[in-house]
């Protein structure tokens, strides 16, 4: 089984994305190989939001339909997943990287 994240799913769905072809080939190959493609419910929500924003409701609906049709399987997170996420967020390198990104955003903002 393969756990899918937001970026490749969004890229596969957006025709003007630089990585669209690569992502479509990846998912097609995994599907043809019989690999189960899991999408955490949190990722389903994020992908849906981004597709609606970037491409409209019809593209979002097509993504949701692919889950309903069994191309992907939505899975719920369990408490241990959140515990692991909390551990990762507490890592000094994660805190440092996030602060640097926030600072860079503030410094380059023009509004």
Q: How would you sum up this structure in a few lines?
A:
This protein has 111 residues and is mainly α.
Notes on the structure:
The protein has 111 residues and is mostly helical. It has 6 helices and 3 strands; from the N terminus they run βααβααβαα. It has a 3-stranded parallel beta sheet. The longest helix has 17 residues, at 92-108. The chain is globular.
Q: Which terms would index this structure?
A:
single chain; 111 residues; mainly alpha; three-stranded parallel sheet; 3 strands; globular
Please give the structural blueprint:
Elements: E1 2-3, H1 6-13, H2 20-32, E2 37-40, H3 41-55, H4 57-68, E3 73-75, H5 79-90, H6 92-108
Helix pairs in contact: 1-2, 1-3, 3-4
**Count of DSSP strands:** 3
The biggest beta sheet is recorded as: 3 strands, parallel
End-to-end separation in angstroms reads: 45 Å
Specify the helix fraction band.
55-70%
Q: Output the strand order for the largest sheet.
A: 1-2-3
What structural class do the secondary elements suggest? mainly alpha
Shape: globular
Helix-strand pattern: EHHEHHEHH
Mean pLDDT: 89
Number of helices: 6
Question: Roughly what fraction of the amino acids lie in strands?
Answer: 5-15%
Low-confidence stretches: none
Radius of gyration, in angstroms, nearest whole number: 17 Å
């Amino acid at each position: 089984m393969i756990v899918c994240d937001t970026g490749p799913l969004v890229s596969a769905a957006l025709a003007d994305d630089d990585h669209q072809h690569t992502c479509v080939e990846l998912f097609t190959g995994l599907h043809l190989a019989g690999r189960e493609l899991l999408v955490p419910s949190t990722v389903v929500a994020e992908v849906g939001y981004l597709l609606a924003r970037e491409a409209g409701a019809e593209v979002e609906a097509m993504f949701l339909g692919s889950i309903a049709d069994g191309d992907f399987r939505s899975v719920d997170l369990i408490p241990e997943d959140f515990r692991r996420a909390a551990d990762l967020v507490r890592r000094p390198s994660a805190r440092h990287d996030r602060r640097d990104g926030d600072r860079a955003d503030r410094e380059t903002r023009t509004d």
